[in-house]
Amino acid sequence: MSEQKIKIRVPFINEETEHFWNATGEGKLLVKQCADCNEYHYYPRTICPFCMSDNTEWKESPGTGTVYTYSIMRRVPVPYCIAYVTLDEGITMMTNIIDVDLETIKIGMKVKVSFVDTGADCALPFFTAA
Amino acid sequence: MSIRGKAYIAGIYEFPGRKAADKSLAQLHGEFAKGALEDAGLTYADVDAYYCAGDAPGLGGLAMAEYMGLKLQHIDSTETGGSSYVAHIGHAAAAIAAGKCNVALVTLAGKPKSQRPGTPRGGIEHDAPEYGFEMICGPRVVNMYAMAAMRHMHEYGTTSEQLAWIKVAASHHAQHNEHALMRDVVTVDDVLSSPMISDPLHRLDCCVITDGGGALVIVSPEIAKTLDRQCVKVLGHGEAPKHLDGGRVDLTYTGAAWSGPKAFEEAGVTHSDIKYMSIYDSFTITVLETLEDLGFCEKGQGGKFVADGNLISGVGKIPFNTDGGGLCSNHPANRGGMTKVLEAVRQLRNEAHPKVQVDCDIALAHGTGGSIGTRMGSATVILGREDS
Question: Thinking of the domain B131-209+234-385, which architecture would CATH place it in?
């Protein structure tokens, strides 16, 4: 769990995403893979957006990937780095890069998931340098 | 069925102010509608179709039809953010061609600059399926576009100097627009030395925030013939949403890559026929990616294309946003699609400012809505002079 001071926003959770967020509370990053077409997708859905199969399965991701792109938001009290990270499974997710010197972040940088506790039985799947 | 030549833009109106604190939202829509109808020589009573987007109050078209006393036989509230009003032109032209209506009114209004703090934004944002996964990350309008710019720079070597040229060109045009919010001509250095908001976008890479809006009236060829006003022919239209595609994210292109070719095909024209273009300019990167996607240059060559004043009227190859665009003049309600069409109509009517007017028989207007960093609407229209 991260100790860095960042703005923690408790996620909005619904019936379809509850399982994902419960797993974050246990330090697990879950992604969805279609058992029919084998494609991963993100954000997780019940029905595969690539083949319309409802045979999608939760898979635990190792949580490793690379920075696809990022931007440091500077005109705020505490600057932060928003990013898209491409997981090794091939899907890209919106996240934050944390616990690193913001000026050292680069596209292509290897990162790994680092959960930030929300105090609400779930955690934010952010990333830090691998 | 093609809409080519099946509909005409007969009237336009742009609110000249940039603050509208003393007016209600419905009042703004109603006044802009009146302005566009009077420009066409028509009245509320002539309108039989109404188009609006998420900026309209209440139940949108229903609320505004009642407010204006419209008796309608066609209504469309397609909401694709700032691109909505460009899409509406295509929808209205198709409806007119299908015989569903004859006089279509499109309005846009908002007051982000003077809105009271705490005013509900409306909408059902929390129900959006992506909401829980994205709101935790602190997405803002600017850092979403910034991520697209960062990736474009990485893949194609695009530079901040090249992006800055887009603002420079807009400012050269805005100096002639007495209503523009920012009329000072700026240099590349001015852009680069303005505060970094969200890397790599500086303050001057961003558009202005303004109240106001505008309206336009689209009519059938039969109605157009009866009007004294010079009308503008709708030649072609294309639209396409683009999104994150289940996690197959590519932020280096926009939906213009799909909407543009459709509009060109329907219009039956090529890029060299376009004498003026209104390109959605929420940020400099929005213009650069859109120009590539519309095919005005090769993918990745947008930086070279916009550099050295190439978008400045009378200087470069093809002028863009001769009213100063959203980058310098007006971005009412944070939705720039309407004003893109309005300046294209002015160019075709020979009513742009003399310093920026070009000999224009065919023009293109492109709208972008939502965010090129996530999910976006793209809509392209190609318009011609009445005799085109």
Answer: 3-Layer(aba) Sandwich (3.40)
